[in-house]
Design brief:
single chain, 250 residues, Purple Acid Phosphatase, chain A, domain 2, six-stranded mixed beta sheet, globular
Amino acid sequence: MSEAAPVLAVIGDIHANFARLDRVLDRIDEVGADGILLVGDLACAGHARVRSAVSLRRYKVQVRRVLAQVHARGRPMAFVPGNHDLRTNDDPANVDGRLATLGGLRVVGIGGAGPDLFGFAYEWPEDRIRALRLPAADILLCHAPPRDTALDLTHSGLHVGSDAIAERARQHTGVLLCGHIHEAPGVVEIGDCMCMNVGALGQPFGRTVLGFIHGLDRLVWEDLDTGNRREWRRHDSRPARHPAGHRCIR
């Protein structure tokens, strides 16, 4: 690893939106990131009531295409499955429950979402997450956001994240990445943990957005559709200044 802080790119809930995925991958190439992290919901395996052999075949084709599109850029990559993904995926970049190292940073994954159980493909009760024994890491790569934060707030004003994920954030020194709630991009600090929801490429509330981690002390969020850009530094809730043409999200 070079003396400069490693830069990892973060892509939110893709939901098989291949056009937006290409645009954010182009931006990642421009930045020259050391690796790419995906927070899950690569596609949609469907609700239990309507899941069929045909829909599962379509889902698997879409997931293979998403992963191939990212792998084709030639950068190290890690992902977790989201609640709309099947829990099992044998791609070696799947870090659900295990450790990988990208750009010299240790990444461990917690896939799926809870605690509400709606019948989607990968859901869990809180106690399952509390019982997980995970190796020490710099980055927690999650799908579900920590509860009662700006990152789990729905458009209707409800907090729908996970207490168990919030508990892990309070015990973690480093960065936590999440998605799941498409309309709640942003960064919050929980103790010594910087937490980012990068937002979603897929619907609903999808935009051409992505994030960047610069080491463990600087997070950046970009909306390629609007030019909005925001930057956070550890223990400083004020957004950094940016060149003309970039506006901070509120």
